[in-house]
Design brief:
Layout: E1 8-11, E2 16-19, E3 27-32, H1 43-61, E4 65-72, E5 78-80, E6 84-87, H2 88-96, H3 100-117, E7 125-128, H4 133-147, E8 148-151, E9 154-157, E10 192-197, E11 215-217, H5 219-231, E12 235-241, H6 248-260, H7 264-267, E13 276-282, E14 285-287, E15 290-291, H8 302-307, H9 312-320, E16 328-329, H10 332-360, H11 384-394, H12 400-412, H13 418-432, H14 455-470, H15 474-486, E17 489-491, E18 499-501
Parallel strand pairs: 3-4, 3-12, 4-7, 12-13, 14-16
Antiparallel strand pairs: 1-2, 5-6, 8-9, 9-10, 10-11, 14-15, 17-18
Length: 506
């Protein structure tokens, strides 16, 4: 059953919020540009997948059956997104003196580990670029005669052969395509590689035979091929970071138009055929020196946050606290505030559970019997208020910043019966994905990698401090407390958790 209240989503094609109407009733087919696995994903990269996960969870919340594809790019992506430089995978393999396949496997596993740590639902299927090279060659052969031309460096797509190229990016002149580097023999500055020939004498680890010579596919080709293979054309939603909106996605659209032989008039799609009905993009994560980027060096990964003692769901909460189309500032202050907010939510749950135990003599067994409220029951009179507000926020182009205070309200409202409270939290957390009822409060207490003291040692010192306080030896008690603080441990008197790490991010 799908919810009848309409979901409204921003479409980058029209730069407007529109009512989502799927191609097939009750189903939503989504394709997300995945990582190029030559290095660890930085936090800016990962924001895109928190956004996409919020979208997927919202579609599920509204009752749609979701098919979601994320690709793994292990060939073809050059060091410049604009068709210039070296293949990122080849460059990484040379730099690390490893097989390119080992590089791809290592960083693919690392990315999937990040996805799991952020409580992101795995896609319906991962598609790997190198598995689809034969299909890419066939796709290129289909469009080559009418839309491509061959030069010394490879087969290039002539963007003048498709209608309204660049409409997604809103760039139509040379000045607007300033990121594209010149390549000898290109007809138009915006033309892009479909197949890149191996240069004479070049020793590549990844290359295939093709009608245009031995080489490798262009980066843009893979997403057109894999989205078509898994979702068909057209499908419902294509997602990615806002940087993809300028070059990568316009090039995908051009390929899709060429392959399907679709003009705006013939497509039957109001905004013109592009392969997907909706194109959705999240904005940048910015640090104090600008957009987070691997090219700057020293970029921040999820692994480095964990090493600093920050639970990864604090970063998820940070992402959800800003609208996906807004820039999001990353700093020790914003991340620390998100971690504190998450801890407060978990503490509120612990307090309410303790009150529940005091009142009934029975505690819930890890909320095992708590289920989200179904779509059919969300309109019941006793629960419709807060869920109606939550639904209004999330279906308004994924307005997660408005959703979070509603969760906090439910956690603290003394008029809500606890049994209902847990069902409400479980229901809202289906969208937010913060594991509020599944994660133990102590799980948020992650020791920094360089911690100068172990958890066992901390507990022993706290026992010693408790004995000192009982003996009214307050000088010894204070000395123990100060020694713990010096080692990064905050003592929490009056709290059953007793202590937590004092996170230092700078």
């Amino acid at each position: 059953m799908t919810d009848t209240a309409p979901l409204r989503l921003f479409n980058s094609l029209t730069r407007s919020v529109e009512t989502f109407v799927p191609i097939t009733a009750g189903e939503a087919r989504v394709y997300s540009c995945g990582p190029t696995v030559y290095n660890y994903a930085h936090l800016g990269n990962l924001r895109a997948y928190v956004f996409t996960d919020a979208l997927r969870r919202t579609l599920l919340w509204k009752g749609y059956a979701v098919t979601h594809i994320i690709n793994i790019t292990d060939v073809g992506h050059l060091t410049s997104d604009a068709d210039a430089g070296d293949d990122k995978m080849e460059a990484a393999a040379r730099a690390q003196a490893k097989s390119i396949w080992d590089i791809a496997a290592h960083y693919t596993d690392a990315f999937k580990s990040n996805i799991a740590a952020l409580n992101i639902i795995e896609p319906s299927e991962w598609t790997v670029a190198t598995d689809y090279v034969p299909q890419m060659i066939e796709f290129a052969k289909t469009i080559a005669d009418r839309h491509c031309y061959e030069i010394d460096s490879g087969l290039y797509f002539d963007v003048s052969t498709v209608p309204d190229y660049g409409r997604l990016a809103r760039t139509k002149d040379d000045e607007g395509e300033g990121r594209i580097d010149p390549v000898a023999g290109k007809r138009n500055p915006q033309d892009f590689a479909i197949w890149r020939k191996s240069a004479p004498g070049e020793n590549r680890q990844m290359e295939w035979d093709s009608p245009w010579g031995k080489g490798a596919p262009g980066w843009h080709l893979e997403c057109s091929v894999m989205s078509h293979a898994k979702l068909g054309h057209p499908f419902d939603i294509h997602t990615g970071g806002i940087d993809h909106r300028e070059i990568h996605h316009p090039n995908e659209i051009a390929q899709n138009q060429a392959f399907c032989g679709c003009s705006d008039a013939a497509s039957g799609v109001g905004a013109g055929f592009t392969g997907a009905r909706w194109w959705m993009h999240n904005n940048f994560l910015v640090d104090r020196s600008g957009k987070m980027s691997k090219s700057k060096g020293g970029f921040t990964t999820l692994f480095s946050l964990i090493d600093a003692g920050v639970h990864p769901l604090a970063y998820r909460l940070l992402c959800l606290s800003a609208h996906y189309r807004s820039e999001l500032e990353f700093s020790s202050g914003t991340l620390g505030a998100a971690l504190t907010r998450l801890k407060r939510m978990k503490k509120a749950i612990a307090v309410k559970r303790w009150q529940e135990f005091q009142e009934t003599g029975q505690a819930l067994d890890n909320f095992a019997d708590i289920r989200p409220i179904s779509i059919e029951k969300r309109e019941d009179a006793d629960i419709t208020g807060v869920l109606a507000l939550f639904d209004a926020a999330i279906r308004d182009d994924l307005n997660t910043p408005k959703c979070l205070p509603l969760v906090e309200e439910v956690l603290t409202d003394p008029t809500i019966d606890n049994r209902l409270r847990w069902h409400l939290i479980a229901t809202m957390d289906e969208v937010l994905g913060l594991d509020l009822l599944k994660m133990d409060r102590a799980d948020l207490r992650i020791p920094p990698k360089d911690a100068a003291i172990t958890e066992v040692e901390i507990e022993a010192e706290l026992d010693r401090r408790q004995a000192a306080r009982a003996a009214k030896d307050f000088a010894a008690s204070d000395a123990i407390r100060n020694a713990l603080i010096a080692k990064g441990v905050d003592v929490m008197d009056g709290d059953p958790l007793r202590w937590e790490w004092n996170i230092r991010l700078d």
